[in-house]
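Below is how a single chain appears once it has passed through the pipeline. First comes the sequence as given, then the structure the pipeline wrote out for it. We keep one example in the README because the format questions we get most often are answered faster by looking than by reading.
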Amino acid sequence: MKTVFFSLIGCFIFLTTAQAQQPASKTSRPAYTLQQQYNSIKARSSSYKEFNQVYKVVRVDHLDRLWKNVQDSLEGREHSIRQAGKATEQALKKAREDLKTQQAEILALKRDNQQKELAIKKTAHDVASLSVFGLDMDKQLYVILSWVVILGLGLLAGVFAFLYKKSKVVTDEKIQAFEVITQEYKEHKQNAREREIKIKRDLQTEANKVEELNQQIVQLKKQVPL
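Resulting structure:
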C-alpha cells in the first residue's frame, strides 16, 4: 500500500507542471486539477506516526480516481504532442519544399552570375591582353617585357662592343709580341747557325790537328828502332 502511494506521488510530481500548462481532452478532463486532488486526498487521509515517520492512510477509490485522472492527463498530453508533432511535420515538410525551391532559384542565379562573370572576364581579358606567338599576354606586361628586351639587347651590345675593343687591344698586343718573338727566334736561329758553323770549323781544325799528330806519331814510330 505504501509503495503504491509513493509511486502515485512520484507520478503526480512529474505531471503537475504538464497539467498546469497543457489541459486534458474535454471528455476526460477531471473536475479538479491534479494538485487539488492530491491536496484533497492528503487532507482527507488519516495520519499516524511510526518510528518517527508520519504516514497517511489513503482510500483506494481516491487513489484509483487520482490514477485515472493521471492517465487521462497523460493521454491528453500525448494527444497534444501528436497533434503538435503532425503540425510540426507539416511545417517541416513545407519548409523543406520551400528550401528546395529556394535552392533551385539560388542555383539558377549562381549559373546566371557565373555566365555573366565569364562574359565580363572574357571582355576584360580581350581588352587587357593580346596574343604573342599563340600565347595570351597582358598588354602592360608586353610593353614592360618589350622595354626590358630592348634595354637588355642594348646593354648586351654595349658589353659585346667593350669586349670586342678589349679583345682587339689584347689581340694587337699578342700580334706585336708574336712578331717580336718571331724576330728574336730568327735572330737566335741565325746566331745558332753561325755558332754551329763555327763549331764545325773548330772541330774540323781540331780533327786536322789530330790527324797531323797521328801522322807525326807514325813517323816517329818508324824512326825509332824496335
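Confidence is low (pLDDT under 50) at residues 1-8, 17-30.

See the next section for the split statistics.
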